[in-house]
Design a protein that fits this description.
Strand content: 15-25%
CATH superfamily: ATP adenylyltransferase
Number of helices: 11
Distance between the termini: 48 Å
Number of strands: 18
Enzyme class: transferase
Helix content: 10-25%
CATH class: Alpha Beta
Structural class: alpha+beta
CATH architecture: 2-Layer Sandwich
Largest sheet: 13 strands, mixed
GO molecular function, one term: guanyl-nucleotide exchange factor activity
Subcellular location: Cytoplasm
Order of helices and strands: EEHEEEEEEEHEEHEEEHEEHHHEHHHEH
Shape: globular
Organism: Oldenlandia corymbosa var. corymbosa
Protein name: GDP-D-glucose phosphorylase 1
Low-confidence stretches: 19-35, 69-75, 429-455
Mean pLDDT: 85
Radius of gyration: 21 Å
CATH topology: HIT family, subunit A
Length: 455
């Protein structure tokens, strides 16, 4: 068994209420304690089925990845409504003091160089508590209700439910009852240790207590989250167990950052493709000249077509015990699949002491080029060379990555083919607007007073 010791990031204020063996000192939120709940107003079966939460119901569009949702409410633009809702609720939680620190006060800079890696000094994310031991050699682990999970989170940390609409449009309900007889609700909650502005957690079917593993419906929900936001600066990420997920309860993360990520700029080489309906094509490319080997999925005849191809690939990696990270970008039109072995190398003693002392855990955001640094020295000395050195330790060796490509080709039903794409550096979708220093604030879609009054 391979394990590493790391200081866990607190994503919920309720996560601190644990005893020495990692178990929660809270009532069992899955117990049947009556209609009045456990008294904590949590997300467990004791409280959630008798609660009312804001509901954002997104339009299910199975026809075209590029089509936008329709929404009509007080003249609010459909492209901005979800952003307004998320940021308005997120800022409300900031005013109420639910975050562990003010992330907007963290220093952030774009590192000079070809890729423009982003460095953030986030000393508030480093907890002065003893490290916890995590197993890193088993991607699939059973859910353990005795350990911290999201059913123990208080509803004050929840922004809204995010679920498919039953009508042919996206709808918002400021207060909607959670029907005990319906399917388990999916919720968007704050991350109380945010990396960036608007940092949230998407928790699919919270009452089902799903372990941290990709499945088809949950991944489609995450892709729709990025699609519905309709903002290229809003990305959705996922970390598997063994790739620096520390909570074994299914969740995705997302936040805003108004700068192109280095991984989005990286050149690619087309290696697989599959023809679809109406002349559509699903394409898988390989990252080139980037420190971490990875694959990029684009296209498909429908959102589900793209989602299923990625989900099938992730399921194959899970079954073969290969840790990985996923980044959903470009409003749900592009997905990066990034297998990694840093935690494995760390457990085997193959990572240098110099890198270990930085206490950087290279999860999806770091691998994508947003380096969250915990020491002033590392921030002041940040360079593209240093970022490259760290991320090179994350990447799978070439032989193991070739097995990943074969696994993806078989599981996703996409034929391997010859390279036929230019390897030039890519321009980001909004490179002309990219600021010299990354902004914490989302400028294009501000919270309106009319919307805030309805929340």
């Amino acid at each position: 068994m391979l394990t590493i010791k790391k200081v866990p990031t607190l994503v919920s204020n309720y996560q601190e209420d644990q005893n020495s063996d990692g178990n929660c000192n809270q009532p069992d939120s899955t117990a049947n304690v009556g209609a009045t709940g456990c008294g904590r107003n949590c997300l467990g079966n004791c409280c959630l089925p008798v609660s009312q939460l804001p509901l954002y119901a997104f339009k299910v569009n199975e026809n075209d990845l590029d089509k936008k949702s329709t929404y009509s409410c007080n003249g609010v633009s459909p492209m901005c409504f979800l952003n307004n809702l998320l940021l308005g609720q997120w800022e409300d939680r900031m005013r109420r003091g639910l975050f562990r620190y003010d992330v907007t006060a963290c220093e952030t800079k774009v590192i000079p160089g070809r890729y423009g890696f982003i460095a953030q000094l986030n000393e508030g994310r480093h907890l002065k508590k003893r490290p916890t031991e995590f197993r890193v050699d088993q991607v699939l682990q059973p859910f353990d209700e005795k350990k911290f999970n999201f059913t123990k989170v208080g509803q004050e940390e929840v922004l809204f439910r995010f679920e498919p609409s039953k009508d042919d449009m996206s709808l918002f309900f400021p207060a909607h009852p959670v029907d005990a007889g319906s399917s388990s609700p999916s919720v968007v909650a704050i991350n109380v240790s945010p990396i960036e502005y608007g940092h949230v957690l998407l928790i699919p079917c919270v009452l089902d207590c799903l372990p941290q593993r990709i499945d088809h419906e949950s991944f489609l929900l995450a892709l729709n989250f990025a699609k519905e936001a309709a903002d290229p600066f809003f990305r959705v990420g996922y970390n598997s167990l063994g790739a620096f997920a520390t909570i074994n309860h299914l969740h995705f993360q997302a936040y805003y950052l108004s700068v192109t990520f280095p991984v989005e700029k990286a050149p690619t080489s087309r290696i697989m493709s599959r023809k679809g309906l109406h002349g559509s094509e699903l394409v898988v490319s390989e990252l080139q000249d980037y420190p971490v080997r990875g694959l990029v999925f684009e296209g498909g005849s429908t959102p589900r077509d793209l989602s299923d191809a990625v989900a099938n690939s992730c399921i194959c990696l899970q079954q073969n015990n290969i840790p990985f990270n996923v980044l959903i970008t470009d409003c749900g039109r592009k997905v990066f699949l990034l297998p990694q072995c840093y935690a494995e190398r760390q457990a085997l003693g193959e990572v240098s002491q110099e890198l270990l002392e930085t206490q950087v855990n290279p999860a999806v955001w770091e691998i994508s080029g947003h380096m969250v640094l915990k020491r002033r020295k590392d921030y002041d000395d940040a360079s593209e060379e240093r970022a490259w050195k760290l991320l090179s330790e994350v990447s799978l060796p070439e032989a193991r990555f070739e097995k990943v490509k074969a696994c993806v080709s078989t599981s996703a039903g996409i034929q391997l083919g010859p390279d036929n794409r230019s390897l030039d550096m890519k321009e980001g979708p909004y490179d002309s607007q990219t600021p010299p220093v990354a902004s914490h604030l989302h400028q294009r879609c501000l919270v309106t007073s009319s919307l805030a009054s309805t929340l």
